[in-house]
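We append the chain.
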Amino acid sequence: MKRLILASMLAAAPVVANADRVPDPNPTAASTPNPAAFPVTIAIDAGRPGKIVDPVWRFFGADEPNYATMKDGRTTLATLGALAPDQVYFRTHNLLTSGDGTPALKWGSTGIYGEDANGAPVYDWTVVDRIFDTYRARGIKPYVELGFMPEALSTRPIPYQHDWRPGSGTLRTGWAYPPRDYDRWETLIYQWVRHCIDRYGRDEVASWYFETWNEANLPQYYWGGTRAEFFRLHDAAIRGVRRALPQARVGGPDSAGAGDDFLTAFMAHAQAAGTPTDFLSFHAKGQPDVIQDATGRHVRMGLNTHLKAADHEFAAIAASPAFRNKPIIIGESDPEGCAACQGPANAYRNGTMYSSYTAASFPRLLALAERRSLTLRGILTWAFEFEDQPPFAGFRQLTSNGIDLPVMNMFKLFAKLTGRYVPAVSDHQLGLDAVMRDGVRGAADVGSVASIDGRSLAVLVWHYHDDDLPGPDAAIRLRLRNLPPAFARGALVTQYRIDGMHSNSFAAWRAMGSPLAPTDAQRATLLKAAALATIGTTPIRLSPRQGDADLAFDLPRQGVALLVATPPSG
């Protein structure tokens, strides 16, 4: 049976899928050839279309709002917007923070509000307009976070800007406190939404999401008031939005999935106060660690922690008759908690560990929501880019210096899953409960989802493991069953691939010696390596018999493949 990749290419390939490992002073384990590939069978029933594919992947965000208007920020936004024009949403902190718009790690500002010598409000939309204009010019809509507190309104304005840096400093300063005047806070929101309507149109602004603040249940970081003060802040903000635009889509609370009762209390408060709530939002994060064992030091991901955090919040929503039918957005969903932090446990970010983790986690988050009969509308990736940093600096980001990372290519694959889901069953996909309990620490997780859209069948396959160590390839046998009549004369199959050799700018950068300042020629090479790659130069022709067809390919550990089958034209 014909394989879609050449075995000789695999044998010669360096182990770069795991090239973002913590350096091992004794790298003999990393240089040992992989064992023989293990067999995996995946069955796709193209004749049983089910639920519509909801593009839950199309939400992104970042701490630093002003990066959006900078050179690499504009490029990154253009890539995201092109995936699903006018369907991609972006959430950011600091849209109401005082300052001149100069960004820093976990900081940004717009100077949207001040007061004159007589104490009268002064509104300045210049910087925030520039940010939203940049979104809209690239087909992206705002997921509007109503925060943080302008200096002139803060109850504790001094010191105002934090001095946080990775590993030290204080994050919670004047920007994080309740307003000294809730009426002025509400009026600020009202005036801003009115201005947005004037600038972008009522129907456009009605298509946005509006929520208040960020992770107010973590008082040591983002909120300097009490729970009751946050609820008051939220109510006033939503009144301001709805007073300007009665049909605005409002919700919250974008709380951290910390295993507490904050979301339950929020729902109880919103119901008792009659605060409009069109959607619910919370955050869920994993917890990678550095493991020292016989192989040396390596990163171990925490997929089970991520899923447990989400399911705790899902359970709270499912238990509420008043809210269990509301759409849900996981307003930050990531392998760990701090995009601007660096360190050994975050060494997974540049390579294929991040992309395969993303492939394995998104379908399971959907499955958890479906298990509780909930509607998960969005999974927001809190990763963007960090302007003017060294290449591949180890931040949680989608691009580095305007060059796509493997995880960005993962979203390009997600964008190709359209139409309706069809059954996809892998004999090596670990069960949901097993992954929640144990993670992926023993056998690898080789899973699949598939969709059919008119004359196109798309099959996504991932090969994931929590441990960032070399491992055997998966020898995939893909069984396509009950293909539509349009496939009677065969099919053309294109395989897109993310692995150590494909769609991988980080591997290419390491291969050229990890230059701190790539030349123009090197940058051109990196951009080419960053593009979403296909296996082979021409599509593969299948000959299905009685609506069935089989094909085979090898998938390296931490690799992701998307196979798109279409009937021949004519």
The chain has two domains: 7-51+420-566, 59-414. The CA atoms of residues 464 and 558 lie 5 Å apart. The radius of gyration is 24 Å.
